[in-house]
Design goal:
Layout: E1 2-5, H1 32-45, H2 49-56, H3 63-70, E2 78-79, H4 80-83, H5 87-92, H6 99-108, E3 109-113, E4 117-120, E5 124-125, E6 135-136, E7 140-141, H7 142-150, H8 153-158, E8 163-165, H9 169-172, E9 180-187, E10 190-191, H10 194-210, H11 217-226, E11 230-235, E12 238-242
Parallel strand pairs: 1-3, 1-8, 8-9, 9-12
Antiparallel strand pairs: 2-5, 3-4, 6-7, 9-10, 11-12
Helix pairs in contact: 6-10
């Protein structure tokens, strides 16, 4: 089973020293040219902060994000598991997993990104600012860029494995799994937003710790029930997780 995660809006600060990223050593190195095109655009935008702010959809007070993008190629890199922060990643707690669960995370988790396309949690990347909904000067709309680049490539990686898709809608458009299942989090019969991320992080952690490898949505639902979740399957390819406390 593969588990697809969105990136986080917030990123950790880069370490003070260390080697930069190496495109040849990232998950799916065949995405090298697609990644290089995005990197080149972001670095060039660094020379024109006003244009970069408008392109990235950020405020003037976030000019530091533009400067960070401009230093992408020389900035010290670190594991993606340390770069991404926020509610989902805090609840997942990758750093505190036992050794076996960490090994499973390295094999099963795929993070979708506006800059990198797809990375594994162990891939060394530089912190950045680049949401999937933007349009870059040369690359054009990022969503379309990655949809073209990922077609066939991720299919080959996923094969016929079950894919638990926990991405937000914007990132889900980058690639559609054949054998995929999505999750909604409900409280009192209503879909929740903020706590949706925390619940999904806890679900991923529980699955990694259990070592379960269900191959169908039905089996995944059974596994989650065994892990203590109240689960319904309203339609094929979707699971609803009902939580009592937020």
């Amino acid at each position: 089973m593969f588990i697809l995660l969105p990136p986080s809006e917030g990123k950790a600060d880069a370490p003070r020293r260390g080697a930069p990223f190496d495109l040849e050593r990232l998950t799916l190195p065949e995405l090298r040219d697609a990644r290089r095109a995005v990197i080149d655009d972001l670095v060039k935008l660094g020379a024109d902060p006003a244009a970069a702010i408008e392109t990235l959809g950020i405020g003037a007070g976030q000019v530091g994000e533009v400067e960070r993008n401009a230093r992408l190629e020389t900035a010290p890199a670190m594991a993606a598991s340390k770069v991404y922060t926020g509610v989902l990643y805090d609840a997942l707690g990758l750093a505190t997993l036992e050794a076996g669960a960490k090994r499973r995370a390295a094999k099963q988790l795929l993070i979708f990104s506006g800059l990198w396309g797809v990375v594994g949690v162990g891939d060394r990347i530089a912190p950045y600012r680049c949401s999937i909904g933007i349009r870059l000067p040369s690359v054009g709309p990022l969503a379309a860029h990655w949809k073209r680049a990922l077609r066939g490539v991720v299919d080959g990686l996923a094969g016929d494995e079950l894919v638990l898709d926990l991405r937000s809608s914007a990132y889900a458009g980058m690639w559609t799994p054949v054998n995929g299942v999505t999750v909604r989090v409900l409280h009192g019969g209503k879909v929740v937003s903020h706590f949706n991320k925390a619940t999904k992080g806890r679900i991923v952690r529980a699955l990694l710790e259990s070592g379960a490898r269900p191959r169908t949505a039905v089996k995944l639902g059974e596994t989650l029930r065994e892990l203590g979740y109240r689960v319904e399957q309203p339609r094929p390819g979707q699971l609803d997780i009902h939580v009592e406390q937020l």
